[in-house]
Amino acid sequence: MDPLLLITLAAALAAPPPIIGGDETAAYPAAAALTATDGRGHIVVCSGVLVRPRWVLSAAHCIEELDSLGQFLTIQAVFGESLSGSGELPAIDIDDRFPHPEWRAGVFDYDVALFHLAERAPVDPLPLAADERSVEWVGAELQLVGWGDTDQAGSNDGRKRTVGLEVETQDGWFLRARDGLGDANLCYGDSGGPALDDSVDPPAVVGVAAFVFQDDDSGGCVGGGTGVVRARVFGSWLNARIDGDPLLGGAPAPRTEAGCAGGTAAGLVLGLGLWGAPRRRRRSPAARRDPHTIR
In angstroms, rounded to a whole number, what is the distance separating the alpha carbons of residues 97 and 116? Predict the structure, then answer.
């Protein structure tokens, strides 16, 4: 592919910040970067987590961006800790993707998807939290992992990062978590990354990151919190899709109120993070959706 085409594609798509205030990590090898590549560089579109040897769980809204880039580039799941390491990257082609059938673009309900790998991943998958529906998460810390840009200017060094956020509210569908000091949060490129219960061994996947929010109308990621779609809600669908190797037992949690409880949050879908290519920033058209309006 002409490198100018790659640059043009990258420039045409958004590129703000990452796990702001997070730490680089070599832990959580099951946390993958979902990328588009021409074989020479990677565009980090979203994050995800390996839940079976050939299945990655992520956010459904990532599919739109991946499909757009997939017309010209190869879509892959990349494992490891950096996209810039020496030698061959542990990258595997994604050969199919399955959004939840009830998901609709621009809203947060049902924002989960499974991505099928062309071959087995070189790392061990993580289990999903089996009894997450009955757990009181408020006050607990979740470890969120993602790949994304590294500052407000849209830089991206292609490294995996993690941050601990405390759950402040929950309902039958979502957990809302934030850094108590307001210094750390998720942002573009981290969408679909796992929210982990790190108190168990191995860490259990409680859900995936779907949006960020602010307590006012300022927008952006700094100083706000992250909305996590609870995986347990979708147990029946996950089991049906990964036939013969169920992720969860039992029925899905009943729906309570639409959206997330509390606050006057402005929801911001976590879009692209780009690595290894020039780009300009553009806000997503869905960037100001209020999570309280989800249908």
Answer: 6
